[in-house]
Design brief:
elongated, alpha+beta, 61% helix, Heat Shock Protein 90, single chain, 2 domains
């Protein structure tokens, strides 16, 4: 431009002088503009890298949670399965009809268990599955095991983690029946309170015979851990001893 302008328009010599005088300023402005573009580009790529790293971390945490939840859920089955098989073995000699019934019930229970994953399940569905579990236990314990299940205002819109109740009820049977030959009632109560569903499981309890010889075991701790992993809240499982009853209460958010 320095040489073209004089040839095309000699009268623009003044404008040419202006261009020559402003060249350092325009050069500095161009460098500044390029510098800002470079800084913005670096910041943008760094933010993209951070977002990708955060996404990978969240995905890894999710996979770890799912793996731990699956591990906790899978550990619930062997203990119950071994007890059931031992009971079936004993019944095959004394009560073959009861043994066949228990085999059928056990297969139905396990079929329903295999279909479940870590996704929420309707509470009413969980209660029906729990009733099947209790029917199997009733074959083991006979008339000694009595159940009382009451669910107030529970519809199909109430969701809970799958198989969250079985370890609690298994604990109740363990503490309620193992130290007595009398009839024992396992009570289960469900009700909705605001944005949560409250589920309580109660069983007769004698601290002198049941504690400290037996602890709360893996079941209760696994429930606490699962609820913490799923809802990131503590205190969703509480236990209390009242009127010779041991009561375990779950507070499950409906989110």
């Amino acid at each position: 431009m320095k040489w073209v302008l004089p040839a095309l328009a000699p009268e623009l010599a003044m404008y040419q002088s202006f261009l020559a005088a402003s060249m350092p300023i325009r050069f500095a402005f161009t460098l500044l503009l390029i510098g800002w573009m470079a800084v913005i580009s670096v910041l943008w790529y760094r933010q993209q890298d951070r977002n990708e790293a955060e996404r990978i971390k969240i995905e890894a945490d999710r996979m770890n949670k799912e793996a731990e939840l699956a591990s906790l859920r899978d550990k619930l089955q062997p203990h119950f399965l071994f007890n059931s098989l031992n009971s079936i073995s004993a019944l095959t000699v004394t009560k073959p009809e009861e043994a066949r019934k228990m085999v059928y019930q056990l297969s139905e229970f396990l079929r329903g268990t295999i279909k479940k994953d870590n996704k929420p399940s309707a509470l009413l569905t969980e209660i029906e599955h729990l009733k099947l579990y209790l029917e199997i236990e009733k074959v083991r314990f006979g008339n000694r095991l009595v159940t009382d299940i009451v669910c107030e205002d529970i519809g199909d819109d109430i969701w809970v983690p799958s198989m969250i109740l079985q370890p609690i009820v298994e604990n109740a049977i363990k503490f309620g029946l193992y130290d007595t030959l009398d009839k024992v009632t396992i009570g289960i109560r469900c009700k909705r309170v605001n944005d949560s569903v409250i589920i309580s499981v109660s069983n007769p309890f004698d601290p002198e015979t049941a504690y400290p010889q037996k602890g709360t075991g893996f079941g209760l701790e696994s429930v606490k851990r699962r609820l913490w992993l799923l809802y990131n809240q503590s205190g969703l499982v509480k236990t209390a001893y009242q009127d010779n009853l041991f009561i375990t209460t779950l507070n499950i958010p409906q989110v």
